[in-house]
Structures are given as C-alpha cells and as structure tokens.
Amino acid sequence: MDPMTDEASQDQAETQSDESDGAPEGGPGRLDPTDWTDFRNQAHQVVDELINRFQEADQGPVWRPIPDQVQENLQSGLPRDAQPLEDVLDEVREDILPYTLGNTHPRFFGWVHGSGTPTGALAEFLAGAMNANTGGRHHAPILVEEQVVGWVRELFGFPDEATGMVVSGTSMATIVGLATARRRTTRGRDRTLGLAHPEGGGQGLVGYATADGHQSIKDAFSLLGLGADALRPVAMLEDGSMDPEALDAAIRRDLDAGLTPFAVVATAGSVTCGAVDDLTRIREVTRQHGLWMHVDGAFGAALKLAPTLAHRLEGIQEADSLAFDFHKWFHVPYEAGFILIRDGALHRATFGGRADYLTSLDEGPAAGDTWPCDLGPELSRGFRAFKVWFTLQHLGANAIGQAVETNCRQARSLARLVRDEAELELLAPADLNIVCFRFHPRVDSDDPLATPLSQDELNELNREVLLELHRRGIAVPSPIRRGDAFGLRVCLCNHRTTGKDLELMVDAVLELGRSLMPVG
Amino acid sequence: MDPMTDEASQDQAETQSDESDGAPEGGPGRLDPTDWTDFRNQAHQVVDELINRFQEADQGPVWRPIPDQVQENLQSGLPRDAQPLEDVLDEVREDILPYTLGNTHPRFFGWVHGSGTPTGALAEFLAGAMNANTGGRHHAPILVEEQVVGWVRELFGFPDEATGMVVSGTSMATIVGLATARRRTTRGRDRTLGLAHPEGGGQGLVGYATADGHQSIKDAFSLLGLGADALRPVAMLEDGSMDPEALDAAIRRDLDAGLTPFAVVATAGSVTCGAVDDLTRIREVTRQHGLWMHVDGAFGAALKLAPTLAHRLEGIQEADSLAFDFHKWFHVPYEAGFILIRDGALHRATFGGRADYLTSLDEGPAAGDTWPCDLGPELSRGFRAFKVWFTLQHLGANAIGQAVETNCRQARSLARLVRDEAELELLAPADLNIVCFRFHPRVDSDDPLATPLSQDELNELNREVLLELHRRGIAVPSPIRRGDAFGLRVCLCNHRTTGKDLELMVDAVLELGRSLMPVG
Asked: CA triplet A36, A38, A39: central angle to 5 degrees?
C-alpha cells in the first residue's frame, strides 16, 4: 500500500473527525457537561448543602473516626469511565464531608489552623471557573494579585519598591525569602556556580533562629543546600522570644570563627507559645552586622490588623523579608501564604530571567514587565490571590482584626481558668493566643497515703485525656511537649470559638483527668 | 491602683465580652455571614452566572484589553471596612471576569494552558468549604490524596512503595524530585552539612537536560544551591528529543573530569515542539552510570491516558521520579501538579522529621505515619488533591484521554493546513500537539521586481500578525523563537477547540499577513 495514500486517507478521517468536534456541546473530547440543566441543579444543591454546613458549624463532634468501610471506599482504583455527577457527589457526602479534620468547628484548637468562611469558599468557586494561571501575562488576575501585594505593603508599612506574591504558605515564603538573602550575600554567584563551587560564595554561610523557630526554617536551609547545621540556634528569653544579646554574641562568635553570617529569622508568633521577638532590637543587631532580617509571621502577622495588638509587631516594617499565611488568622481558605521582600530588584534578580517561549510582548495578553514567575520558583500558578482579595473586600480588614482581638482575649481567659483550677497547670507563658497546659492534680499533703504522679504517669494520663477529647470529638487541642512534660496545646485562631466552648473543654479535661487517674 | 485589682477588673470585662461571643451567629469576631439568606441567594446567582460563562465559552473575543478605568479600580487600597457581598460581586463581574486570559475559550492556544471545566470549579467550591489543611493528620482529605497517589502509581506503572503528592505544579515537583536525587548521591549529608561543606557531598554535582528542557529545571538547580551551570545541556536529535548517545558521552566526559554526575532530566513533551525523549534508552544510560532519571512530563504525561499515544511514554514506568501537571492536559483547574518518586523511603528521608509540635499520636486526628509534610517542603497544604479526585471520578480518565487524542489529531490537521499553504511555513516538527509556524510568503521567481523579505522583516511581520490576533481577540497562540525566526506557537491542549477554530485562525493569519506585508 502506498504510504502516502494511507496518510491521505488518515488525513481525511481526521478532517471528518474534526468536523464532528464542531458540535456546540459535548463533542468528542469536550469535557463540559453533556446535560447542563442537570449540572446546574446539582451545583445549586451543593451550594445549599455547603452553606447549611457552615451555618451548623458548631453542631456534632469536632472530629470523628473514619469507619473501615469509608477507608476502603477511598482506596478504589483509577476511574476509567465517567460517573454521574450525582453519584460522585454522594460519595463526597458520605465518605469525605463527615470526616474532615474539624477546623471549621468552634472547638477546633489544634496546631495553627484557619477556620475558613463561606465567603472564601465562594471565592474558590469563582477562581475555579476563571481557571487563571497567574505565572504571568497580562490579564485581570495578575492585576488582582498586584493589588493584594499593594495591600500587604500598605498594611506592614513597606516601601513601594517592595515586591511580593501569594505563595502556598509560610514554608514556601521562607524559602523564597532566604533564597533572596542567599543571593544578596553571594552576589548571585550561587545561582549559576552553585554553593559548593569555590567561587559560588557558599562557604561558611550561617543563619540564626531560636530553637522554637518553626521547623520550616530548618527545612528551608536544607532545601536551599545550606544545610540544617548552618541554622544556628539562638537562646531565648523567658517569654520564648529570641534574646537579641545572645544573637549578637552568636554572630560575633561565628565571625571570629571565619564563618559568614547572612540572615536572621525572627519570629512573630512562635508556634509553641505565641512569643513575638523584639523586632526593633533584632533589626539593630542585623543592621550592625549587615545581615538580612527575615520575619516568620506565619500567624502572628495578623496582629497588625488588631488595634490593641499591632504594636507587638513594631519593627516589622524594617524587615528585609516577611513571610506569613492568609490561611491562618486571616481565615482565607487553604492555601494562601505570602512573601514580601523589601528590595524588589534583588528579588527579581534572584528568580527572574525567562526562556524564549516565555518572552513578553509589548502589548496584548503576552505583555508585562515583571511576571510573578520572575519572583519565585513557580511557573504555573493558580489564582490564590483571588480568595485573599475577595475575603478582604467582603469582610474588611477590621473584622478580621476583631477576630484576632477576640482570640487573644479568649486565650487570657483560658489561661486564667487554668491558673484558677488546682488540677490544671500552665506549661508555657500564654501571652498571645496559645495556651499549653496539662491535667496535674495536686497531692493532698495531709494524706499520708497520697503519692504524687511521676512525670511518666502524668504524661501518660494527659495523652489519654487528649486522645479521649479527640475520640469523642469534644474538642481538638494538639499535643505538645514542653521540656519533659506532655501537654495539651490550645491555639486560639478560630473565629467561631466562644467562651462557652473553652469552658466546655476545660470541664471535659477535668472530668476525663479525674476518671482516667491511675488508682494509687 | 493595685495592679492585681486592675487585672481582676480587666478579667471581668473579658469574661463579659466572652459571654457575648456565645451568640449563635455573627458575634464579635465571627466572620460568617450576618444574613445567611442573602448570602445564599447571591451564591446561587454566582453559580448560574459561572455556569452560563462555561456554556458560552466560545462566545466573544478570546482576550480583550483591560481599560484604564478597570486598571485603576484594581489599585484601590486595603479595604478596612466590610462591603456588601453584592458590591464585591459586582466588581468581580465588571473588572475581573471579562478580563481573564481566555484559556477557557476554544481559540486559546498559548503557552501550555489547561482549559478547565465546570466540574473542576464545583470541586473548588467544595474544597473551599472543607478548608482542609493536608499537611498531615488523620482525616478523609488525606485519604483522598493517598487515593490519588495510588491512581498515579497505577496509571504510570510504578511499584507500591513509590510515594507521591499533589504539588503546585511541575516546577515544584521538579524541585522535590531533584532534592531527592541530590540526597541519594550525598547520602543525606547535604541536608545537614550543606553543599559547600567539604563533607556535604556537593562538590562537582552535575545533571543533564537538553537545551529545550523546561526553564524550571535550570531554576530548580539554582534554588537547590547546585547552580544553573551544573545543569549540562545535552544535544538533541532532529525531532527535538534528547540524543541518548550524546548524553552518554557527556556523562563520560564529566566523569573523566572528576565531576559527579547525579541526575538526568528527561522530557516527555517538550514545551517548544512536544518532543518526547526515548525514555527506555535514557534509562539504560542512567542505569549504566548509576544516575537518577527524573521525567518532566508537565503536559506530556497525559499521553498515558490516550490509547493510541500511550506507547510514546514507554520507559516512564522506570523513572526514579516523575513530575507532571493535572492543570494542563488533565484540565483540572489551576493549580495541581504531581511528583511521584519510586523510592518512597528515600523520599521520606529527604523531607521527613518533624518538630515536637507536629508529633503524631497513635489514633485520632493527630494520627498517621507518613504525613504529606514528610514528603515535601510545605507544612500547610491546601486540598488540591480534591479537584483531581473529583475531576477523574466524574469525567473518567478515558474521556480526558479522548481529549488528548483529539488535540494531537488537530495538531496534525493544523500542520497539514500550514504545509499546504504556500504563504505559511512550519518552524518545528509538529509531532505531538504543538505547531510552530509563521507567515512567510514565497516570492514569485518569475517576477523580477519581487524581493524576498529579510529575516528581520519577517520577524517584524509575524510579531505584528500575532499581536493583531491577540488585540482583536481572534485567537491566542504564543510567541516563539526558533533559531533566528520569530513565529506563532499553537499548543493544542484545549478540550473546547474544534477544527473550525483552527481554520478560523489560519484564515486570520493569512489575511493579516497579507494586509500587514511591507510594501516592497
């Protein structure tokens, strides 16, 4: 057979096949609904159900165990064939929605979780429909992100030349901030030559954070090829904040040893007890030695919205880079973090430079000077900025700040409840929004038979108390270890929490602690 | 005044204030709607409008210029006060929705953009309402992501011990893949000691990709501290794929020079012309030298879903790591990429290890052996896996594969149209789904007055043709440079494109080219 003829007939078949693609709806390959009316009806039903879910956020247990059958359902293989939307939604209703972590429930206090809003969920639907790639180019979503960058600059008092972007979270923000700091010190040689090259500028680079600094800082050092050992632990003051004098001493010691200190990561809101470093003083120390100051404000940066608390962040406006999350105390749905960098030119130099196929044109959709992909490691990027924009536009920064105020007030109330209760013990300063405590019954010194519980027994008891709170879905604090003590960590960054929720949790801890006490 | 008394009265005020937080709806700080009925009505209206928008995806221009007034509106400062939802939605309707990039339109062919689906948008609403943080812990969203990981393993023929996760995109996936490769070679010393340390294992590490390899590969080398120079360009065969013999020679040369080759990045679907490397042969070469094989299948990995094209990926099942995007040819909304790593233990060793406050418990919400934060640099993570899960469950893998088949057929049709047209010229092989071409009128050799256009004139002409296509919103190919030639790059990965859309674009290019020709 003549291969040309064969190709020609194949071509003809392709043309015919292409013709049929012209069908307005549901042609071969088109992935839109074949029955729009059905899709529309089901979408409306989902909207009602999800709004009901938010309205009843305080109903039922915070978390519930996932039945074996559900776990099994969620192990089926790759779906090859289409399934009716209704069936898929039914699986979501039965196997997924009831078994989320509970962070939209008012008694979720674990780790540092945002609690979300219906507003944010609606924004995600809009963003999903726009399906914007904000890696670059000239379209409204890019302008929306630029507007959000402007808001962040305004909020934190950064200059106009500061650049920034919405990233997945503070972990990624810290990577971007520290990569920029690294470049500043190596004068860009790290980018081409690499850190191990004799002229790459990587020898002896060291940075600083406290031992309570977030794990993502050490992880960023590892990822960037600096090594976790290059992050030197700085001593803390009693409140858990970085000791600026210890920082100064550590830098001097490392300089004397011939190392190259390049960056300090200050923390605004430590994850264990909410400590805020003295940013003004740390800025003085870093200036004196010519070091970069990166601020990890993962949740604490939101204090800037709260009138009576904003002063705690004094000095943040002088940071070289600031990392924080919108999905925590700003309650934007997961995920949305932010990196802001004072020296925009350095930021662009760290990540900029594009291949031919990404060249900008002077106008049209391919236009634009700086694209977001020039400011970070991601070339395709979703429209995370939209939910930030939409949440702030609708709720307003003040209302979010009000929620922050409320949470800090609640933490003080809870700490007081703990202090006032003979069987409870505070494990860390509760200065901001985090309360670490444990069940610790005092021994009656008049009773000769009573022996105090050992540390191991106390730890076992508190672990059981926590697990029981979890199992029953009463409340979800997270586990914490302070020194040798195992405790319950209550992080108040939930806008649905009320004073009654905290009382309910304290009562449950007392009751469980008493009932689970080993018989002495 | 006794400070204790003062504190007591402050406490009392706090308690009272807490009392008022107990209001079921809209207490101080609560960020849920104050008028649920209004919110519900407006959400329903948004759903209808967005579904209409999808239904009319082929209406109107692909892209339109953003009016000055709109640009100005999108520069207003941080919103301090709440605004009615309706007003915010009106701004979205007026200033944002009409000015998206156009990648949901059937005649969007620029860069490599997914075109999204109503199914995916609905999934985003659901995910936004769940507001899951999939960094870890024990809840259904984690199981859903594990299920998606299983599907990816199944699809690409990876063993059960392979681990993976949904990431923002292939850029991030490549960073995770190469970080794991780096650790394999340094035996983990890079993680603690850093690359520049004499014993960190970073000296002389080099990797390989072709010059057509994606920019994100070089960027990953920079971010990881290896330096862009450590990525060695490997010669290509005529079809744009990596020349395995040249790879072998390059590795030998570097070994002879005392360097430490550690990884090869093969490409399945190059961004300029859709070339697919011979993965089987590259695997042989990498095995011979003990190198890691990372596959960048950003869009090309979707060929695995297409019955007549899947064989092009033969050998992918042997990769050490595979990076690809769900938001491209799988049409999941932005953003959702994936990293799959054959050696799960090595993967965990590269990113695992958690601080005290992230310790797992044996059961309850804090349970779980490997959390996703043990497999990548992100500690907070959104529920990106849900839109992948929902899209595949509803549409089925086969339908997505069908769309891939259709796009490749369309590319062959378009290449034929270009070849058949005397005034058009193909600039690169159009073997998969990408067609690079330009307007290039042949000179009538019988006409003594006709002189051919210079390369510069041709480039200027084609730039104008492209800009005019963009300005008028007729179609959006992206700019491309092949050698010295500027051309139009049509990437067919749009499930809404029909044969008619391609004919319309070709006709417009011819008409514009003729009308914009410099008068000779």
From this structure: 60
Torsion angles phi and psi, residue B487, rounded to 5: -145, -175
- B167: helix, strand or coil: strand
**Whether the Cβ atoms of residue A210 and residue A236 lie closer than 8 Å to each other:** yes
Interface of B with A in 195-224 (CB under 8 A): 195-197, 200, 202-205, 214-216, 219-224
Q: Is A450 on the interface with B (CB under 8 A)?
A: no
Chain A / chain B CB contacts < 8 angstroms:
646
CB atoms within 10 A of CB A383: 30
CA distances from A257 to A205, A250, B199, B473 (A): 12, 11, 18, 62
Q: Given 3-state DSSP classes, what are the helix, strand and coil percentages for chain A, each rounded to the nearest 5?
A: 50, 10, 40
pLDDT of residue B183: 97
Interface confidence (ipTM) of the complex = 0.94
pLDDT in tens, A62-120: 999 999 999 999 999 999 999 999 999 999 999 999 999 999 999 999 999 999 999 99
pLDDT digits (tens, 9 = 90+) for A260-277: 999 999 999 999 999 999
Res B12: pLDDT = 41
Chain A neighbors of B404, CB-CB under 8 A: 29
Alpha-carbon distances of A204 from A182, A445, B186, B233, rounded to whole Å: 12, 57, 18, 30
Domains of chain B from N-terminus onward: 125-395 (3.40.640.10), 400-516 (3.90.1150.170)
The length of chain A, given as a count of residues: 520
> Which of A4, A6, A17, A31 to mutate to probe the B interface, most B CBs <10 Å?
A31
Instruction: Inform me whether the C-beta atom of residue B423 falls under 8 Å from chain A C-beta atoms.
Output: no
Encoded tokens for B202: 């970073």
Asked if the Cβ–Cβ distance from A80 to B416 is below 8 Å, we say no
On whether any CB of chain B is under 8 Å from the CB of A313, the answer is: no
Q: How far apart are the CA of A215 and the nearest CA of chain B, in angstroms?
A: 6
Angle at A411 between CA A215 and CA B12, to 5 degrees: 165
DSSP, collapsed to helix, strand or coil, labels residue B510 as: helix
Contacts of B19 in chain A (CB under 8 A): 499
Rounded CA-CA distance A406/B8 in Å is 18
SS3 letters across B62-100: CCCCCCHHHHHHCCCCCCCCCCCHHHHHHHHHHHHHHHC
Residues of B in contact with A222 (CB under 8 A): 190-192
Count of C-beta atoms within a 10 Å radius of residue B5: 9
